[in-house]
Specification:
about 500 residues, alpha/beta, Rossmann fold, 2 domains, 11-stranded mixed β-sheet, 3-stranded mixed β-sheet, 15 helices, about 30% helix
Length: about 500
Amino acid sequence: MIAATKSGAVRGGAEDGMLAFKGIPYAEPPTGSLRFKPPVPLAPWEGVRDATAYGSRALQERREPGYVYSEDCLNLNVWTPAADGKKRPVIFFIHGGGHFEGSNSDAKSSGPRLVGRQEAVMVSVNYRLGAFGYLHLAHALGAEYAASGNCGLLDQLLALRWVRDNIAAFGGDPDQVVLMGQSAGGKSVAALMATPAAQGLFSRAIVQSGGVQCVRDRATAAALADLTLGALGIGDGGLRAEALLGMSAETLLAGQIEASRRISPAHLFGPVIDGLTMVEAPERYLASSRARGVPVLIGYARDELASEGDDAPADEADARAQLTSRFGANAAYVHERYLELLALTDARRAYGALLTQYVYANASLALAQLLAENGHQVWCYRWDFQGSRPPGHSSEMPYLFGVAAEEDAEGYLPEHAHMARLVRDTWMAFALTGDPGHPGLPSWPSCSSTGEFGYWLVLDDPPRVEPLNLQAYDKRFPMQVIRLEASGASAHAD
């Protein structure tokens, strides 16, 4: 099957009852002089390009055999029932992985698993990760690199524009694009909602285990970048910052990995309020009339980081060190909450509950309330179902994508197939109609329609609707999870 994009023709193939077009490049390779720069739209090609195999994955530390990892990673996949000119809703899926790992070529999150047998199209996108996508370098390399800390976000934005311009050729409707992401993908969805240039490129949003907690101010972004620069020997009499531009990709990745020994890797990278792409703090932008109101489905897993309790601090000094690695200047406040929890339970449970609240639950509920109060129709959920493992981070994903037990070791069992149908039906109802309600659920009002910060759906067996548990929401805690003060050159540049 051949589809014509504005860059050229692509040949796809059949996959599980759908047409699949894989590894379609949407930008020029972000290498050489384009490293740390906004993505450049791809120049047209002649002839028909093969799109039957996944493209390269972004560079990252952990690698699976059988895949190519490269700095040249800006490609996307499209799955469609038919490239027939119909206007179907389009799910634009952004993978997770802490902004430092993950890809669009994980077979467990392929299009047919989610939208198979549905009148919908799915697009999954690769974007630059880690230092290649989120290293804020304006203070080190000058104004030419002012957007470097948002390259990953800009990649996602360019891919959205590609969908706007090309998805009709694949049987999709550019006016019905549903942003969907989990973990770092959910945080990316929230960041795009707070990005002026993304307005009008999507009509609905699904935020799983996300929020704007990883968006950082420029001082924090510069201080975090300095950790990677220091690991690479840049500054303080070492290499000049310009060495970054000619450095091998593997060397740059090694510096990123070394920096992650000082700051939790999940908190080391993320979008930046650079005044260019993200023009102001997301909470201010989303509360303004400039943000376009869209329906939003948002939530998290009940025990997101309970398993982290296995690494509970051994003593007071360890507690302060671990919390500083995750929260920076916010650690003092979180430490007080930790002491309160320790008075109620053991260290393992206290630490897991603390991280669940301040890394995920608080961020989800804070964003939900902000959106509900400012023109968005918002449905909240919490994933509580305990299959063969607790409802921790990402535990809903095998159910959402219907991954069979023999393919996955993350808790999905054949006797849980009804829960897989339930969560997929809920997500697809929202994607197709803008309302997640369906006959398999009890009545579930949106937060906006209740006149207060209302109710949420607890996805369990059976599902139930309950008043929102605001005990999991600490309004005193800032939306930006990690905050650092700039030092050295970054303190008076940028």
